[in-house]
């Protein structure tokens, strides 16, 4: 039963000591108090806020809660509540994946939390989002696209369509036209896990990388606070940077996979660009069967897929302080987890926040959480898809002031929903 405004449930002048009477005015023998503990708790704004802030950060949660009463809606629209909600949950939910390019979106959640592609806005300044090579993926709610014809990088918010246009650094304009371009963005305002909820309006760093003829990789760092590109750093590479594997953020470094299993690492604090060699024990030869990882301790990891078995390496410092790959004992047997008719799979995406990979097979795409080994069939088809899956995380609630307003996701919350959520997170 949907909750009414608790403040209006008890008529003025009545309380717990008021007894119901018969029509003739005589008092009933059994005393039944009109107020109950739930109503008393929900009548207290401070307690109600403590409960509402613990609602799951799913798209439908706040919109359903706002439909309970005007009082609840006014609380949910309050900017201070928004900040408290983001600070409590810290990590935004994985809404889904942009597949291949920015125009195709695959929801990651079930109904009523599925976000259709129509809810997102494309950048208006360029049409390069139609190609897989131009779309560089998402981080901190921002997407990056490279327009090599205009020599521009576009950083935009897919929920609002707002965009920043950043021209290439001067030294990149003269590079060969057949150079491959790679880019990555990160919000600089990372206090309390980006609880400000508006990374687009916050300062950001943009890294642009170019490689040409498999001999040299060059990169430069852009700081939006000063609107200035930094120096161009270069390093020799044996192969080209993988065109299908996007960057991952590990500490103060951004890492890209190089074909053959090497790793290009740019430290934006130390201002250095280096290459990490392939693990010695590696026997993987297909570039689509490598995937960079962010390990549980925040360090760099590498996954290699061979004969439907995933082998894992962790980057550790030895006794001399030199980094080296350590082959982990843990092996993930995909042949025991996937349907038997699947004989081949490769990596097409990775979510660095949850250590979740996206696999492509002959019957569609699966997500696999590396730590728990939970697997889910997210796209069903009868052929292998080579498109890259770019994970998109953000706080979104239709009609509640989070993200772009739209039609409400159906349903309202009742008392068991609210109290169960509160008790589960406080016990």
Automatic annotation (TrEMBL):
InterPro entries: AT5G49610-like_b-prop (IPR056594), F-box-like_dom_sf (IPR036047), F-box_dom (IPR001810), Gal_Oxase/kelch_b-propeller (IPR011043). Residues 1-22 are annotated as: Disordered. Residues 45-83 form the F-box domain. Residues 138-340 form the F-box protein AT5G49610-like beta-propeller domain. It comes from the Eukaryota. SUPFAM superfamilies: F-box domain (SSF81383), Galactose oxidase, central domain (SSF50965). Pfam families: Beta-prop_AT5G49610-like, F-box. This is F-box domain-containing protein. It comes from Aegilops tauschii subsp. strangulata (Goatgrass).
């Amino acid at each position: 039963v949907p909750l009414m405004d608790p403040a209006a449930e008890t008529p003025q002048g009545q309380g717990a000591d008021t007894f119901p009477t018969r029509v003739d005015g005589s008092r009933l023998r059994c005393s039944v108090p009109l107020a109950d503990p739930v109503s008393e708790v929900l009548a207290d704004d401070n307690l109600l806020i403590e409960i509402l802030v613990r609602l799951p950060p799913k798209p439908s949660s706040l919109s359903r809660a706002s439909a309970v009463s005007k009082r609840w809606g006014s609380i949910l629209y309050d900017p201070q509540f928004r900040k408290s909600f983001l600070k409590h949950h810290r990590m935004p939910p994985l809404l889904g994946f942009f597949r291949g390019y920015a125009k195709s979106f695959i929801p990651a959640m079930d109904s009523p939390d599925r976000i259709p592609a129509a809810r997102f806005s494309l950048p208006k300044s360029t049409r390069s989002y139609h190609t897989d090579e131009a779309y560089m993926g998402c981080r901190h709610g921002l997407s990056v696209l490279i327009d090599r014809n205009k020599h521009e990088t576009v950083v935009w918010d897919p929920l609002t369509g707002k965009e920043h246009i950043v021209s290439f650094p001067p030294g990149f304009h003269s590079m060969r036209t057949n150079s491959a371009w790679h880019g990555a963005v990160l919000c600089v305002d990372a206090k309390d896990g980006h609880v400000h909820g508006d990374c687009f309006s916050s300062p950001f760093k943009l890294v642009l990388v170019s490689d040409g003829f498999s001999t040299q990789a060059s990169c430069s760092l852009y700081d939006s606070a000063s609107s200035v590109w930094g120096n161009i750093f270069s390093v020799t590479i044996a192969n080209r940077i993988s065109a299908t594997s996007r960057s991952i953020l590990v500490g103060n470094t951004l890492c890209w996979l190089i074909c053959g299993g090497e790793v290009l690492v740019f430290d934006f604090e130390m201002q250095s660009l280096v290459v990490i060699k392939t693990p010695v024990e590696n026997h993987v030869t297909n570039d689509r069967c490598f995937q960079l990882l962010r390990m549980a301790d925040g360090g760099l990891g590498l996954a290699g897929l061979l004969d439907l078995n995933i082998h894992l390496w962790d980057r550790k410092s030895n006794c001399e302080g030199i980094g080296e790959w350590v082959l982990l004992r843990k092996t993930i047997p995909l042949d025991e987890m996937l349907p038997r008719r699947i004989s081949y799979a490769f990596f097409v995406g990775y979510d660095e926040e949850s250590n979740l990979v996206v696999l492509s097979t002959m019957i569609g795409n699966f997500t696999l959480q590396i730590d728990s080994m939970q697997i889910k069939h997210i796209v069903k088809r009868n052929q292998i898809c080579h498109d890259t899956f770019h994970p998109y995380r953000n706080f979104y609630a239709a009609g509640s002031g989070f993200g772009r307003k739209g039609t409400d996701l159906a349903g309202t919350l009742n008392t068991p929903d609210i109290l169960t959520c509160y008790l589960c997170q406080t016990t």
